[in-house]
Amino acid sequence: MQSHLEMLAARSLFLARAFGLVTAASLAVACTASAGDGTADGAEDPASATGEDALTSPRSVSLMYEGSCAFLHNCSAWSRKLPAGEVQWGCGGTDCSDDELWVAGPSHSYCNRKAKICHGTRCTTATVRDISNAHGWEASNGVLDAIGMAHTVNVSACTGGGGGKVTLQLL
User: Fold this and answer.
1) Could you write out the DSSP letters of every residue in 59-89?
2) CB 3.0-4.6 Å disulfide test: which of 5, 103, 135, 169 passes with 58?
3) SS3 content of the chain, % helix, strand, coil (to 5)
4) Nearest CA to 128 among 70, 47, 43, 30?
C-alpha cells in the first residue's frame, strides 16, 4: 500500500508530465526511485557528498533500473530521432544491447569508468556509458540479470522499475 507521501509524489509527477515539465524517461526514473526503500536518490551515494574517490572502495548505493534499449530509444527525447536500436548515451556513442553490462553514473566524471557491482554474492563489472538524470546509479538489463535483481519495463507506456541496494566500487 502506498503512503500518502508516495501517492502525492506520484500525482505531482503525473501532472508535471501532463504539462510537459518532465520527460517520460525522467518520469519513469522518478517513479522507479519512489518505489524504492524510502531514501532519496543518491542519499547514501558517497560520490554525491565526498567526490568520486569515495567509490574506490566498495560502498552501498541504491541502483535503479535504467530501462531496456527499446525503452531508452522510445522514451528519451535525445534518442527518438536516432535509427531503431540506437540510444544517445551521455558518455558518447549510440549502439545499445540489452545483454551488455553498462550503467549510468551520477555525473560526466564517471564516463567510461568500470564499476564492480555486487548484490549479495553475485557480482559483475560494468562500464559507465550514460549520465543518470536522477543523479544516482542506474543499470542495464544485463547488469541486473547478472546480479539477480528483478526489473520490469513497459516500452509503450514509458514506465518500469527495478533495482535496489548494491555494493559498488569504481575500478
Assistant:
1) EEEEEEE---HHHHHHH-TTTTTSPTTB---
2) 169
3) 30, 30, 40
4) 47
Query: Helix or strand or coil: residue 3?
Result: coil
Which triple of cell numbers denotes residue 84?
531503431
Q: Dihedral angle at the C-alpha atoms of 141, 143, 147, 149, nearest 10 degrees?
A: -30
The grid coordinates listed for 40 are 532519496
How confident is the prediction along the chain (171 residues), in pLDDT tens digits per residue? 433 334 334 444 433 343 343 344 443 443 333 333 333 333 344 344 345 566 889 999 999 999 999 999 999 998 999 998 899 999 999 999 999 999 999 999 999 999 999 999 999 999 999 999 899 999 999 999 999 999 999 999 999 999 999 999 999
